[in-house]
Structure formats: structure tokens, C-alpha cells
Amino acid sequence: MTNIAAPHIDALRTLLGESGLLVEKHDLEAYETGARFDRGVAAFVMRPKSTEEVSAAVAYCVTHRIDFIPQSGNTGLVSGSTPDETGTQAILSLDRLTTLGGIDVVNRSVNAGAGVRLSALNARAETDGLFFPIDLGADPMLGGMIATNTGGSRFLRYGDVRANTLGLKVVLADEAGTVLDFTSGLRKNNTGVDWKHLFIGTTGVFGIVTECVLNLEPLPGQQATALLVPASDQAVPGLLVQMEQACGSALSAFEGMSGNSIRAALAHVPALRNPFEGGIVPDFVILMELTRTSQACERDQPLDALLESVLAEIWDSTNKPLANALMGPPAEMWALRHALSEGVRHSGRLFAFDLSFRRGDTLAFLAQMKAQLADTYPDLTVCDFGHLGDGGVHFNLVAQPDDPDLADPGFEAALRDLVFSVAVDDFGGSFSAEHGIGHKNQAWYDHYTPQAVRTLAASLKRAISPGKRGAMHF
Amino acid sequence: MTNIAAPHIDALRTLLGESGLLVEKHDLEAYETGARFDRGVAAFVMRPKSTEEVSAAVAYCVTHRIDFIPQSGNTGLVSGSTPDETGTQAILSLDRLTTLGGIDVVNRSVNAGAGVRLSALNARAETDGLFFPIDLGADPMLGGMIATNTGGSRFLRYGDVRANTLGLKVVLADEAGTVLDFTSGLRKNNTGVDWKHLFIGTTGVFGIVTECVLNLEPLPGQQATALLVPASDQAVPGLLVQMEQACGSALSAFEGMSGNSIRAALAHVPALRNPFEGGIVPDFVILMELTRTSQACERDQPLDALLESVLAEIWDSTNKPLANALMGPPAEMWALRHALSEGVRHSGRLFAFDLSFRRGDTLAFLAQMKAQLADTYPDLTVCDFGHLGDGGVHFNLVAQPDDPDLADPGFEAALRDLVFSVAVDDFGGSFSAEHGIGHKNQAWYDHYTPQAVRTLAASLKRAISPGKRGAMHF
After folding, report:
1. Domain-by-domain residue ranges, chain A?
2. Domain A6-93 adopts which CATH fold?
3. Is domain A348-426 given the CATH code 3.20.20.370 in the classification?
4. Looking at chain B, which residue has its C-alpha nearest residue A202?
5. ipTM computed for the complex
6. DSSP code per residue over B207-239
7. Which of B190, B216, B445, B447 to probe by mutation at the A interface, max A CB count within 10 Å?
8. pTM of the entire structure?
9. Residue A239: how many CA atoms within 13 Å on its side-chain side?
10. B459 membership: H or E segment, kind and range
11. Is the pLDDT of residue A298 over 80?
């Protein structure tokens, strides 16, 4: 049971109905456990089934000083949607807000509840030849995608969740549970503050998203992919520029994969084929993708032919940026890319960093950081991969279980200090490119955010949603 | 001279230097007059030449309760950058913040001061095959473009200023003149609030933008344009959908032009050629454009051929959506499009509305509104044009000088009430699609913004930039 007083439980059950409130331990477990390692104890779980019920529950909790954490699919990677260990925090689950409106084909948009899964949205949109262009390994709910502002592998072409959100409905954490409705679905509207941006990427701190209007894009009908082996690190930025100039908006992905991360994937995901000659994995490989909508591509030469001619020209260019280039089936190449994360997780004890840089700095950071790590922590394996097209780097460090460093209780903190000092201080990069701020990043937010900005964020929080929301305070 | 006390003038001159403060009437005039009709009286003009000087000037004004209006190119259309008639408001001009950094080719970005003209930015970017993809008739400064969140004719392909702004440097209107620096130039960064969105499109109410980091796009190397005459209003939304599915991201403009606006342009801009058979202008014409970057297009069939084959297919489709289609030189077709505004302005007394709708509602609004106006104000001519690709409508009503309605002092207010009641109340549209909120729209902001939202905006204003800023209070 819960350590929140019984009258509160009764009152909330009256507001939300019998199935709207969970208090039994076995019912709570699924909500207490995050996607990676994090696990807390929930006081109870509220499961409102409409914006009005969210408003009523929030108003009750704020009025009675009950601390609560909004949660949707709970697939985030920074402990932004799980309670702490005290058992004093309730969970406000959005998983019953699953209303999915019809596709507005002319506006290329859809209204959807915060509890709708990405896969469910795309299944609906596909029948009209459309999709929500955020490409992720996981299958999150839309509320969490908005609260995290997820990016993914096709950011280069389509942008992030923010760029594809036309509107929101939000419940503020105030004593009234104020509902703000910005769901007009207009694509162009400059009538004051564009409020949705305060709620996108801020982990529910400023309010709880209950509904959204999303932009949909025409489904690509044709893809062509290649694995590029650059002649050197220095050649990579130029390759990106050449590809963008040659392929324009047909370029939909330009992903970096270290040899270590590819080897980890091949070792731990047996179904994968090793596409490299003699099975020898290069040190660094780029997965690039071209896409086109179905009708246009039928009129031009096949996309494979276009890609081949672009690659031939780059191959012959005077600076010789390519050591190798393999064209191949998109499904096989993306299977390799999407297996990297799982492969790395199974390679040992993982220390993961979600970094980003100005695009020209990515390779320079990797070179400098790897050199420093080889000096300081020679037993760590660097298994980086990421999104060269937008500067994102999933910088993963893997230790073997017998690494003596692991016995040092200060090891992880020292390692994180070192990586962030190079990434953020030396290169002006981000300490959270696409995973957002959760408990895991709160300390780094405090460290790297100027005092004036933190003060301002706190003022906004007080002005907009004064109710408590876990320990998060940005 | 000015009615601000001489000691203030002396103190500000000390902060900004001799050339940084203008007080003589003949020096002020250029800053007192807006792009359209609006004209006020400035107490004096401050012309800081760096962010530090902006900060010092703002701190002084806020501390001493001097009301000031930020202004850059002063080409806006809603009186957002001109003082009122009282002579008590100073102007903070950003026109000396003209530092333009080098182009970061790999990051496709540039750092630029708020006083840089759009044309100057594009001249610099062109040497690297890039451009800032906001297509406007005017040549504004970047500060005003950001404060207004301008859209333009290629929104469909590239989005608005917001979508193309990577970062900002901002001075808050507080007693310290606090400087916030968000100019890291990262494309992907989720470390809390994405502050730039509070300052984009809010007319300087929350702070003064002094510097920006902008996204640049590869210059299109090949264009193809056509004028489409739809078979009926009902055919237009389907045409947009068919074109997007057929042409994907090559579709860079889909603009609507009423016959009345075309006739006005032809009558008042003599250099224009009438492209229609027998000179007979249709009731409604769509200007569509396809673009590609230069290298990619050389590999595929010419864009003209692609457009021709798409048009042939649509021409033959069973619902026969097209009555006519004319392909022609892009320069000539855009000259017609860009002349509409001037033509309409010269056709009589103009009542202009900057509206937007969900894309499927645009034509339905036009039909209903025109019917109601024909009933109520039969002597008005409707000269609408706009951006069908994003739902934007420049809804222009022209009265002839002898129209008896003009003698009625309540006419304009009644007309605006009627149009907004249909556009906003009946169709859920925007009363300011891309011109922002200035004095001209303040009353409509007050009328159409829910009390809870206005209260929240006022709280934010107090928390972020408590200093006065003209009469604007959203």
C-alpha cells in the first residue's frame, strides 16, 4: 500500500474512477521501472482517461501538496518519468489518453492523445501515404516524445519532434489544473507567444501534455543506402557537405558508426550479416540514405542509379575522400545501424553519453577524446555512433567486468567529469543532445547552465506550474 | 528636441558615444516612420554598436523608467517598431549591429548581428552556395525578422524564421540589462528550456535580440514554375495534396492569386506581361514552383520535364482538377506574384488582413467570406492572394474613394469585426499569420486570447523583462 493518507486516495478514486487509480504493489511495478536500470517506488498511480480528468487530478495533487511525476510510455533514457525511492511520489500516467483522430490529409496533420504509441500513429497515417517522420529504435508514447523532444536518425531531413508539432493541449500544475488549448492545427500563426515550445523538451516541468497536433510527411516510396568508409577523419565533414550539395533534400540520413560499435553489434546480434570484404570492419563507417516519395521517383532515374553516380563522382574527386563505398539493401544496412545500441549494451559495463556538436566539430571531438581516454583509461573501449548529419554523438564507453577501475567508487564521476569537460567546455557541445533532462542529467544541468538562466527557469516554473514535480527544478 | 530630461540624455550619450544618440528632429524622422502609414514621435534614438552597449542602454532605461521601442529595419506591417505620438518613447535602434561572421560551411550556419540586412546575409552566403531560405518582398534586418517570425513564399519547403534559427543572443529589459547567450550553434540540444522560442515572434516584448545563429540551405540551382487554373475551388486542396505526393520536397511554393489581385498588378505595374490567353485573367490562379540543388538536378531529367509529366498526369486524372496550366520562366512568374502587393495598394483604399487557416479550410473561408461581403459591402473589391501551401491568406479589401461606406466613421471597425468573426470564430483561423503583434493587432490579441493565456504572458513578461516596452503588454 501507499504512505499517502487514505482520504486522498479516496478523493482521487472518486475523481478518476475505480480503474483510474492503482495502489496495489503488483499493479505499480510496471510504472516504477524505467527503460534502463532506473527503478523507484510509487505512492500510487493515477490513470486519467481524458484531459478533464488530468486537470482534476492535477488540481487535487497541487492543492494538497502531493508530489507527482507525469509518465507516458516510460521508454526515456534519463530517468525523467520514474519516481524516486521514497514512496512519496505519485505517478500521473497518460497511458489511457489513447484517442487518435482521423488523418487530416489536406493539412497533413493528426490530433492524438499523449498515450498513443508512435507505432499506432504511423499505422493509422500509412493508409493515407503519410508518416510521423521521427525515426527511433524504441516505440514511445507521444506525450513522452514531446516532453523529451526526441530526434532520431532522420533529423537531418525532417527535424525533431519540435519541428513536427503543430499544437498541444496542456494541463498546468496549478491549483486549478488550468487547461491550455493550442490545438488549432495552424501551420502559420504569429499571435503572441508560441506557447507549445515551453512544453516541448521540458519533461513535464511546465505542464502535462495531454493531446497534440502533429505534422505528417509523405511516406518515402524509394530508398537507396550505402556504407561509406572515409579515407580519413578529416574527410568526413567534406563528405557531408558534398552529399548535401549533390543530393539536396533527398539525403535523409548520414549516420556515423565506429568499428567498435559495429563489431559489438555483429558479436551480440547473430542475425546480422557482416557486409565488409573479408569480414574486416573498418574503423569508421558512414551509413547514408537517400529517399523520395513514391510518385516522383518513378519519373526520374532509379534512386540507386542516382546514388551510384554521386558516389562515382565523389570517388574520383581530387581529394579522394573515400576509401570504400558499399551500396546495399536499405533493410540490411538499417538493421546493422539499429543493432548498435543493443550490441554495445551487451559488451560490458556501459557508460553512455548523449552528446552533440556543431557539425564540423564532431570528428575533431572524437579524435581528441579518444586520445585522452587512451591515456587516462586505456582499458575502456570507445563504441561511439551517432548522427553526423545533425552533430549528435552517442558516445559509449565500455568497461570489461575485470577492469580494476570499476572497483574505484569515484570512477564513474571522474569519467563523466572528463568527458563533459572536453565535450562541453572545450568543444561547446551539448551534454544532452536528444534524451532531455531527467534525474540522470539534473546535476549536469545545474553545473553547466548559467545562474541567470537557472533563475529565469525557476521564475517561469513558479509563474506557470507552481506544483511540485519530483526533485526536478529546472 | 526631446521631452526626456537633459541629464538622461547626457548619461546615455556617455554610454553610447556621440554618434550613438540622436536627438535632433531631422535625425529622428527616419526612425519615426514605419513601412505603411504608421508614424509617431520619438523622444530620442539610441544606436548602440555592440551587445554590451545595448545592455548598458537597456539597463539605464529600465532603471530610470524610460520607455523604449526596439527597432531594426522598421519594415514591419503592424506598427511593432515605431513610437506612439506622445514623444515620450525612445527608440533603441539595432541598425549598427551589422557584424556578419564567416559562413560555417560544414554546420551550414552563420552568426550575424540584428542589424544585418537579409540581402547582405544572402550575398555573403551565396559565395558558398548557400542561402537563408526566407523569401520576402521586403529587405528587412534580421532582428526584426526574428521578432516577427516572418514566413514568406517558400514556407512550404523551408519553414519560417523560427525553423531556421539555431540560436540567439538577447538582452533582457531588466535593471541589469542581463545578457543571455544561446549562440552555440548546435542543431540538436535538449538541456532544458529552448529559450530562443520565447524571443522569436514576440516583437521584443521579452527581450532584445542582438545576435543570431541562422541555418543556411543549399541554393537551388534549378527551378521550374507553372501557373495552374483550378477547375473549381473544390479542386484546390486535392491539387495541393497531389503535387506534394508527386513532387515531394522539390515542391517549394504553392501560392494562390485571385484574379482581382492579378488584374491590380497588371494595371499598376506596367512592366508585367499578361501571361493568360487573350489577356483574360482567370478568377483564381496557383503559382507552383519546383526547385532542386544544382548538382542533383544534372543527374535526373530536367525539372521542367518532371513538372510537365506531373502536370500531364494530373490533367488526365479522373476528377479533372485543372482548367488550364501554363509553364513559363520562373523570373516572369515570380515577378507577377511579387507585384500583387504593390498592385493592390495602388487600387484604392486598402483594408488588409493577414490570415491563416488549416490548409483544407482556406478556399472554404474565401468562398464564405466573399459571399458575406458581397451582401454587406457590395462595393468592396476582394483582392486576396497568399500561401496555399501553409494556409496563409493576405485577404485584401479595396474600396474606391467614392464608396459612401468610407464616410461612415464606424466602417473600418465594423468591417474588421466581420472579417475576423468569420476567419477566427467560424473557421478557427489566425488573425495574424505572419506579421506578428504590433499596435495594429494589440486589440485583436486582447480580444481573441483567452484570459488564462494573457495572464500567463503577463507573468512571463514580469519574470523575464519587467521594463516597459511601449504600450504592448502581451
Report:
1. 6-93, 109-218, 220-341, 348-426
2. 3.30.43
3. no
4. B192
5. 0.95
6. -EEEEEEEE-EEPEEEEEEEEEEESSTTHHHHH
7. B190
8. 0.96
9. 31
10. helix B451-464
11. no
